[in-house]
Structure formats: C-alpha cells, structure tokens
Design a protein that fits this description.
Rossmann fold; 5-stranded parallel β-sheet; single chain; about 55% helix; about 140 residues; alpha/beta
C-alpha cells in the first residue's frame, strides 16, 4: 500500500489521552499501512516529553514513541521540496497578515511535498495554506 495520510501531533498522540477518541483510534487502525508522520511532529512530542520529570506519564510517552510510532510508522523528513514549498507559502501568508506557526507550516509543507492528506484536530491552524488537503478524524 502507499501512503495517503500524514498525522499531525494531536492525531498521532491521541492514543496517549486518558480517554482517546474512538473514531481516531479506529481510523489509525484502519489506515495503519497508509499513515506517516513528520519529523517536526516527532520533535513536538519529544519536546513535551523531555519537559516532563521522570514519571509514569513520561515513560508511557517514551514507550509509545518507541513501540508504536518510531518502529511502525514512516517518519518523513523536512527536505528540499518541503523547504521550497514552505518558503513560498509562508511568504504568501505573511504578506496577507496570516503568519502561521513555524512547526505547523513545516508539517504542512511535508504533507504537501509528499502529496498526503494532513490529519489534524486543529483544522483551523491549516485553513490558510493553499492547496493543502486536510481531514479531521475526531
């Protein structure tokens, strides 16, 4: 199977929530062979994890990353194609007064460069990007 979806941070981390959204879990299971995530998503999760003290919650996140993400889901890099789209699209948005958060625009660029649908619960964060396909599984 080929990749179809790029999971944003809030979708990829949904299984860690105390009461995860059943639809998100079902979609992740259904499309497990067709999902990927991006290096900035991994950075966001690791940053949050590394800010936590050594604890059960931190170990849970580390275990999830190792056993369910890094070893099973393709992690797509921020490459030259992503950087070119990102620079062009970020400049366009800044010029119209809609400066996106840097990590979100990197994630959008990776999805666009790989022709993937970005799956996020924060659809509004990606609404201003041109020609970006976005879905919400919540």
């Amino acid at each position: 199977m080929s990749l179809i979806f790029l999971l944003d941070t809030n979708t990829l981390s949904e299984p860690l929530r105390p009461r995860p959204n059943e639809n998100v879990l079902r979609q992740i299971a259904t499309y497990r062979q067709e999902i990927a995530t991006a290096t900035p998503v991994i950075q966001e999760i690791l940053f949050g994890c590394n800010r936590l003290p050594l604890s059960k919650k931190r170990r849970q996140i580390e275990t999830y990353l190792q056993k369910s993400v890094l070893s099973k889901i393709p992690i797509l890099p921020y490459d030259l194609t992503s950087a070119i789209w990102h620079a062009r699209e970020r400049a366009r948005l800044v010029n119209i007064g809609r400066t996106p958060p840097f990590a979100d625009s990197q994630i959008a660029a990776i999805a666009k460069a790989n022709n993937l649908i970005l799956v996020t619960n924060n659809v509004a964060d990606y609404a201003n990007f041109k020609d970006l396909q976005v879905e919400n599984w919540h």
